[in-house]
Structures are given as structure tokens and as C-alpha cells.
Design a protein that fits this description.
5% strand; four-stranded mixed sheet
């Protein structure tokens, strides 16, 4: 039995590169396997869903879904920890991890398929990865098929003529906020990567590889572009910073992008999910479920405000 983990993924999957960056940081022996026709049988043997990333452990156990993968590996390889010990910073890191995976994917997917130059770039790269070595007319035909299939799917991340400017503004605003935050530190929470870094970076990395989103990043947020390069093979250069040091430049991100957009959107999605449940008489919803879903965004927002407030009070007492 090999001691190496196998990571089946795609260079164009933010969740695959997220897990790869984590494995590199933790020093976990692994083999990166670009999923394709040549390894489909081995992939199918271990995958419960036809999705990357898939990690196959040395004892042949398959793990899927990037966040559970990282959480499972963190229990087996706890050092260096990706969780700040300070409760406020740890919670914010976990919140930003979710924001990166869910909201960051809106920028990435929308920008990748919104404009002809990005569509052609992405479709060509995806086709080359899937083709098993096709070239010329065969590759061009496959690229056209990928483009035809993927472009209409932007609805999946809520992109349409009305929301497109909002999604792009969120991406540019996030770049500006992160550019300020990364002025004095190599990673989001200090001198080493945290749980949040891997998720947020995964989306930013994919943006960095695309013509439009990558061009904007390099022109308007050069520190963020350098951060993207750094996270390809991240290292610990020191400790996590205390929340009091992080707050001046992370709180604006929490207030504007996380609280101002992501949590509101999450609440709307939850309202829609509850409204889509079968009508009374068809299905009985357990007492309190609807209320719990309805109040999720508020509870998370209140917890952020409470923890930030407590950190300010603690800082004032020292």
C-alpha cells in the first residue's frame, strides 16, 4: 500500500486546487492526477459522485467535497493547524471559507463565461484536458462543444443581464479590500495560511488564470496577484495575528461583501427553499425548521457583530 494520497482534480476547478494547496502546505505526500479518460475507471471505483476533487487515502478510502476533505485531513494531520486559536479569528476564518466557496464562485464562473475571450480560453483548456491528446479540428470541435454547453450555465451562479454588473462589482470591490488587507501580511490571517485562505484563494486562482478577471487583478490588485502565486505552495512564516490587528482591514470585507451581499443572498435562497417545500397536508415540516432557516443569516450576522464587539472590549481592557 502506497503512503501517498491520490488527488483526482482539474486545474480549472477552484475546489481541486484548493485541496492541492492544502496538501502542499501540510506536507502530506500526495499524487496530483488530472481527471480524464485515461483514469476514469480508477476514479469511478472510489467516487460516489462524478465530481472533483476526489482524494483517495492510502487505505483506499474515497473523500469528496473540498471542505469535508480538508476537515477530515486536518484531524489526521493537525500540525501546522489552519485554525487560529483566538475564537473571533477562528470564527471569521470559517465564515470566510464558506463565503469563498459559495460567493467567490459567482465571480469566477460568471467572469469565465461572460465574454468571448474568456469563453474561448476556458473552453480550449477544458477541451485539452478532456480530449486525451486531440489536436487540430478534433480539438476545435470539442472546444466548441464545451463552450456551447457551459455558457448557458451561468444561471447556476445567479448570473444574468441584471445581476452581471453586481457580480463584477463585487469581484472588483473584493480585490480592492484584499489589496489593502494584504499590504502588511502574506496571508489573510497573518504569517501563515488559515482555513479561509484555501477557499478564497481557490476562486481567486481561477480568476487569475482567465483573461478578463486575471487582467483586472494584475492591473488593480498586484498584492492579490502575488498572494495567488504564494498560495500555490504556501509556507508558514510565523504566527496568526490577533483579531485586533486583523480587524481594521478585514471588517470592511465582512460588512460590505459577506454581510452586505453573501448573507443576504443566502437568506433569499433559504426563503426560496422553504417556499418550495410541499404544502401542508403533503408533508409535515418539523416544528422550528422554517424559523431556523429564516433566521440563519441574522444569527450568523449577530454572531459576527457580537464577537467583533467582544474583541473590541477585550482590547480596551488590556
Amino acid at each position: 500500500m502506497s503512503d501517498a494520497h491520490k488527488l483526482f482534480g482539474s486545474e480549472m476547478s477552484p475546489y481541486s486546487v484548493k485541496v492541492r494547496s492544502y496538501l502542499r502546505y501540510k506536507g502530506i505526500t500526495h499524487e496530483w492526477i488530472e481527471r480524464g479518460p485515461s483514469n476514469q475507471s480508477e476514479f469511478a471505483k472510489h467516487a460516489k459522485l462524478p465530481l472533483v476533487p476526489l482524494v483517495v487515502t492510502p487505505d483506499a478510502h474515497g473523500l469528496q467535497d473540498s471542505t469535508p476533505i480538508v476537515e477530515a485531513l486536518e484531524t489526521k494531520f493537525p500540525q501546522p493547524s489552519v485554525h487560529p486559536s483566538e475564537p473571533v479569528a477562528k470564527f471569521v476564518s470559517e465564515l470566510l471559507e464558506e463565503w469563498g466557496d459559495e460567493w467567490g464562485n459567482k465571480w469566477m464562473f460568471h467572469l469565465r463565461w461572460a465574454r468571448p475571450a474568456d469563453q474561448d480560453s476556458a473552453a480550449g483548456r477544458l477541451a485539452r484536458g478532456m480530449s486525451g491528446g486531440a489536436t487540430g479540428d478534433a480539438l476545435a470541435k470539442m472546444s466548441a462543444g464545451v463552450k456551447e454547453r457551459m455558457v448557458p450555465r451561468v444561471w447556476f451562479v445567479g448570473s444574468n443581464a441584471e445581476t452581471a454588473p453586481q457580480i463584477e462589482k463585487s469581484y472588483l470591490d473584493t480585490l480592492a479590500l484584499l489589496e489593502a488587507h494584504l499590504a502588511t501580511r502574506p496571508y489573510l490571517f497573518g504569517a501563515r495560511p488559515a482555513f479561509a485562505d484555501f477557499a478564497v484563494w481557490g476562486q481567486l486562482y481561477e480568476c487569475w488564470t482567465d483573461p478578463t478577471a486575471g487582467g483586472w487583478m494584475r492591473e488593480q490588485a498586484p498584492r492579490v496577484a502575488k498572494y495567488v502565486g504564494r498560495m500555490l505552495d504556501p509556507k508558514a512564516h510565523g504566527a496568526f495575528e490577533p483579531w485586533a490587528a486583523l480587524a481594521p482591514t478585514l471588517e470592511p470585507l465582512l460588512l460590505r461583501e459577506v454581510g452586505g451581499l453573501f448573507l443576504i443572498a443566502a437568506r433569499l435562497h433559504l426563503h426560496h427553499a422553504v417556499a418550495s417545500l410541499p404544502q401542508p397536508g403533503e408533508f409535515v415540516v418539523p416544528t422550528g425548521v422554517g424559523h431556523g432557516l429564516d433566521g440563519l443569516a441574522e444569527r450568523v450576522g449577530e454572531r459576527v457583530a457580537k464577537l467583533i464587539g467582544e474583541s473590541h472590549r477585550d482590547a480596551g481592557q488590556r
